[in-house]
Amino acid sequence: MKNRIIKISGIFCLAILVLLGMSLSSQIAKKAELDPYKLEIPEGFPEPIIPENNLLTSERIELGRMLFYDPVLSIDSTVSCASCHKQDLAFADDVHISPGVEDRLAARNAPTLTNVVYNPTVLFDGFLETLEKQILVPIQEHAEFAHNIVDISEKLAKDSTYSSMSWRAYERKIDPFVITRSISSFERTLISGNSKYDQEVFQKKDVLSKSEKRGMNLFFDKLECAECHSGFNFTNFSTQNNGLYEVYEDTGRMRATKLEEDRAMFKVPTLRNIELTAPYMHDGSIATLDEVIDHYQSGGKNHVNKSDKIQPFTLTKREKKDLINFLKCLTDDDFISNPDFSNPFE
Ligand code: HEC
Ligand code: HEC
Which regions of 187-342 does DSSP assign to beta strands (E)? Predict the structure, then answer.
């Protein structure tokens, strides 16, 4: 009799737990539907496309932010995404090649993550289409995390904080699906649109100096910079060759497509926060903005795929200074100090 009571009450408890769990998870599902995270879109910026299968919620963003800053993703727990994508450097790095685990070096310069939500493709190849897929690259790369996402998932599933955050964010245990989607959600919030340029052009405040305005005219009118670095994000999102070398070590987009016509073609980078993201170019080979302008003034090296928009020109000393002053107006101090983007472990 006693046993039966215990058994029945046991089943009863289990049923209550299951029911509670069900109502809890449907509440969470409803919450995700009803309470999507609203990105603040700066004046002059279009509404970004958020994939239907990974709508933003604050739970997802918070989990992704923790993973972004957690070295647990690397094989020896020494390197995190943030080791190479640093907030105070607009989520880029200040060395030409950032070291991964055991100080291993790959071949490309860590780009800024400024406004990646708008990028139709990621990586210099201009080929990979989603942030979700991109996450697998650093995780597996020998010179980055040298790890395996299945092993990472198993390790994280044993951590009670990550485990409960995963259930709250995606209603499932932490796995590769949750890891890639949550980090992407965090990355999609990294929007920068309050530079001096934005204040002048989109918010209609009169903040640019005479020199900065002259630089802006050079950039958009006299020189052909905005042929490629165009629009609100200073990129037309195409791949181009800007004549860095006659012979490139890096095959650029051809790495992904195997097509000769894509040899040494690189994604046109945004110029937002450019003051903070030196050194420049896919290999970090140019140290300063002054030298970047020297490169463009020279008309670049001959390469079969070099764009015909890259032509030699001459600037006076003052014009060069004006152009650099303008480029520095693309720095967004709010972006690099936004507490929502900072290391949650500190
Ligand atoms: C060891 C340094 C390093 C680490 C660690 C690292 N990255 Fe990167 N990241 C790079 C480099 C270098 C590139 C450019 C690679 C290329 O184009 O092939 C890059 C490119 C990217 C891009 C493409 C940006 C664009 O606009 O094209 C994204 C997004 C990104 N990383 C996110 C991450 C995330 C998320 C993590 C952690 C899971 C991470 N990175 C870890 C160095 C690193
Ligand atoms: C034909 C297209 C094109 C034109 C025109 C062009 N650029 Fe670029 N720009 C690129 C490409 C492509 C890269 C990246 C090349 C690489 O990584 O090897 C780049 C890189 C840069 C970088 C470095 C960005 C970074 O994050 O490393 C700066 C700064 C820059 N360009 C400024 C300018 C200025 C200033 C002008 C006008 C004088 C200009 N560009 C004209 C295509 C162009």
Answer: 239-240, 266-267
Of ligand 1's atoms, which has the minimum distance to the CA of residue 143?
1
If one counts the domains in the chain, the total is 3
- What CATH number should be reported for the domain holding residue 303? 1.10.760.10
Q: Residues of 214-241 as b/e, b for ≥16 C-beta within 10 angstroms?
A: bbbebbeeebbbeebbeebbbbebebbb
Query: Which of 237, 292, 293, 311 has most ligand 2 atoms within 8 Å of CB, for mutation?
Result: 292
Q: What is the pLDDT of residues 67-82, one digit of tens each?
A: 999 999 999 999 999 9
Domain boundary residue, one of 191, 206, 241: 191
pLDDT digits (tens, 9 = 90+) for 92-119: 999 999 999 999 999 999 999 999 999 9
> Is residue 340 in some structural domain?
no
User: In terms of residue numbers, what domain contains 79?
Assistant: 37-191
* 250 CA: nearest ligand 2 atom: 18
